[in-house]
Structures are given as structure tokens and as C-alpha cells.
Amino acid sequence: MSGEYEITGGRAADIATSVEQGVSSGALPPGSVLPPMRELAVRLGVNPNTVAAAYRTLRERGLIETDGRRGSRVRERPTTLARDALRSELPPGVRDLASGSPDPALLPPLGEALAAAARRYAHRPRLYGDDVVVPELERAARAAFDADGVPAGPVLLTAGSLDAVERVLNAHLRPGDAVAVEDPGWRSLLDLVPAMGLKVLPMPLDEDGPLPDGLAAALAAGARAVIVTDRAQNPTGAAVTAARAAELRALLGQHRQVLVIDDDHGHGIVEQPLHTLAGATDSWAFVRSTAKAYGPDLRLAVLAADRVTADRVQGRYQLGPGWVSGLLQHTVVDLWERGALDGPAVARSYAARREALIAELAARGVPARGRGGLHVWVPVPDETAAVARLQAAGWAVTPGIGFRLASPPGIRLTVSQLGAADMAGLAAAVADAVRPARPVRYG
């Protein structure tokens, strides 16, 4: 149960606040089981419906989860827990393969692009009432979308991929609606969906993207939205092929009311062609981020969508941030116009690292996958043991638990900090780490 922490309150809002304070203070750590609703109602002297309303509020805020007869418990990553609190300092001498960041050496310098943006600003400062998307960026983004087969639709901007996904989901869904997501999938997305009060439906995937049977099962279970990573899938490196896209589009075509969101965060650093699902249904959004190609601090995502979705997202955005900084937009325009990023060379560099590591692992009998992007996914029998053994060997990797819903255990290795000389030693350490522990014999 909730240990020594005393939940208080006479109204649903007060009870929810009491639990939230316990989570924020650490008195109710992740995994803490909350009292059954009827039991807590008797303890507080309130109607069980009052406690039920409080628990419903906490679920919608992303603090707790309820699993039938197992009851309600604090989520492993409640929304009130800052991401910094989930990080731990690496011991001296341990290499970081867990952060998920791109290789700084492959990011283009921003000095000239920022200076060009400043010169444009000096010539004509951005003022209230100006275009939300600067015309140069809109033209360039639309031309790239046309070349990649993204359907015609308005071009919008948000502060990164996750911001775009959240705003599109909010434009169509309400708490309690179900969303089909990849399993294993992007950890931040798996946190975001339940934090919005939405139900998560897992879609298994292989190297070609979500499995058709998994999508069909999610649609049959009532999915109102489907989110797919087109390429450089995090954490597995999957990339949707033309054949798989055709199968998925055929299934989605039978559910025209379902919202489809394509995430193309790997644009600019991947070698695989794009096969989008946008337009397979009436409501769709296609999201393309600059973070992996130009650096995580360049917080901009270009969004194309059907007219209704675009109007809803843009209308709500104007009531909040209003627009993405014009200085930031012009910086991206300058990077695009000058071809500051040699995308094919960057893609080849990451591909060479992934392929070298996968080959070294295969030579040691360890299966792994990573078709595109920054990561290699390695199935393991015991994530905790594998992570601990690898850290003891000098390598910090990410346990798969944060990426998984119903899929088997694994670990994620980010290759962006690796060189050719690292591969054999790392593969040997992984091979040793994933072997089952030998039984201890006595006598």
C-alpha cells in the first residue's frame, strides 16, 4: 500500500492534490500502491464516488495507473517527476551509450546561420501580425514534403516533435480515448499518451515497421489514433518499407475516422527512403523535426496536416505561444539553403557504426537490430543484470523497460559516441552481459 503516507481530503480535488503532493515529495515513490477506493472512502469518511473521481483526475494527469483487480498505483514515470530526477551520474571511466544524443561532430556549425538570421531581423524585425510561418521556410518545407509524397496540406511549426504530437492528439482526442503506439517505442511518447489521460494500445513491430496484425488488433480494440515512426525508430531502428506501408494503408483505409500521425524525426540523417502513411485516413499529421540533424537545442518541427487538424492545432497554438521564433525559423532556412548538413554522409557514418556493432555482436552469437538512426536494440533475458554488467565493464546503456509495453526485454545502445576501435570490445562486453548467470554450486 502507500506506506506511512497519509492521504487526506474531503473533496475529490483535495484527495487528488494530497496524492500529488505525496508523489512530488517522494513520500509516494513510483510503483506505490494506493488504497482501494472503498477502503480510502471509509477512512476519509466520503462517498466512494468522490475517491473514484480523485483517482480519475490523477490518471488523467499521468500520475497513477489502474490495472483492474491489481488496483491503482503511482506510475513508474509520473508526470510530476522531473526528468533530471530520473538520471544518475555515471561513475568515472564509464562510456555513455544511453543518452540518445547525436554525435556533436556531425552537427553543422550554427554560427553563420544564426548571424544570417540576425541580419534578416535587423533588416526587418518580426512584428505582431506577421505570418506565423515565414514564407521562405514554408516554401522549402512544402517542396520537401511534395518530393517525399506527403499529401498537400497546410504547413505549421511547433517546438519539436513531441510538442507537435501532443497538440495533434489534443485536437482530436479526449481522455479515455485509445492510441495505438509502437512496442517497443519512443519512451517520451509512451509517457506522454497516458499523461494526457489516453489509453495506450501496443503495436508490435519488426525491422519493417508496425506489424499489420498488431495494427489490426489495435484498430479492433477501438484505437482512435495511430502513431508511427517512418524511419530511425527509437529504440529499434526500424524503417517502414514500401510493402509494409501498403499493407498498413490498406488497413487504415477501412477506418477513415482514425487519426494517423507520422513521425519523421530522423529526416536528414537516414539512408532509407520515406514511405508515409499520411492521407490513409481523413485526419492525419506528418511531423518532421530538426533536432537529430541540427542539434537538440534547435527546437523546431515542421508539421503538415489535413485542413481540419491544421486549423485546430494552429488556432490553439495562437492562444498560447503564438508562433515559433522567427529567428529560429530563419536559422533553419539558412541551414537548408546553404546545404549546411551533408545528410548522406551523416547517414553513412551512423550506418557504418550500427552495422559494425551488429556484425561484431552476430559474430558472438548475439542478435541485434538497427536499420536506421542512432540506436541498436539488443534482446536480453534480464535487463537489470545486463545493464549492471555492462556498467561494470565500462559501458552505460539504456534498459528497455522504459520503451516497452508488452514486448520482450532488451537494451538500447546509442552508437553516436562510438568509433571503429570500440566495436569489438563493446560487443564482447555485451555478449558477456547477456549470458544467463551461472548457477552457484555448493559443496
- Describe the main β-sheet briefly: 8 strands, mixed
User: What percentage of the residues does DSSP assign to strands (E)?
Assistant: 5-15%
Rg computed from alpha carbons, rounded to a whole number of angstroms? 23 Å
Side by side, the strands of the main sheet go: 4-11-10-9-8-5-6-7
Low-confidence stretches: 82-86
Quaternary organisation: single chain
Q: Would you report the number of β strands?
A: 15
- Arithmetic mean of pLDDT: 91
**Count of separate DSSP helical elements:** 15
Spatial separation of the terminal alpha carbons: 41 Å
Shape: globular
Please estimate the helix content: 25-40%
Pairing-aware structural class of the strands and helices?
alpha/beta
The ordered string of helix (H) and strand (E) elements is HHHEEEHHEHEHEEHEHEEHEHHHEHEEEH
Structure in words:
The protein is an alpha/beta fold and 443 residues long. The chain has 15 helices and 15 strands. Strands 4-11-10-9-8-5-6-7 form an eight-stranded mixed beta sheet, sandwiched between helices. The chain has a three-stranded antiparallel beta sheet with strand order 12-15-14, with helices on one face. Mean pLDDT is 91; it is low at 82-86.
Q: What's the gist of this structure?
A:
With 443 residues, the protein is of the alpha/beta class.
Features:
single chain, 443 residues, alpha/beta, eight-stranded mixed β-sheet, three-stranded antiparallel β-sheet, 15% strand, globular
Topology:
Elements lengths: L11 H14 L11 H8 L3 H13 L3 E3 L5 E3 L20 E2 L14 H13 L11 H13 L7 E4 L2 H12 L5 E6 L3 H9 L3 E8 L2 E2 L1 H9 L2 E7 L12 H11 L6 E5 L19 E7 L1 H4 L6 E5 L1 H12 L7 H13 L4 H21 L11 E5 L3 H10 L2 E2 L1 E2 L10 E5 L8 H12 L9
Parallel strand pairs: 3-13, 5-6, 5-8, 8-9, 9-10
Antiparallel strand pairs: 1-2, 4-11, 6-7, 10-11, 12-15, 14-15
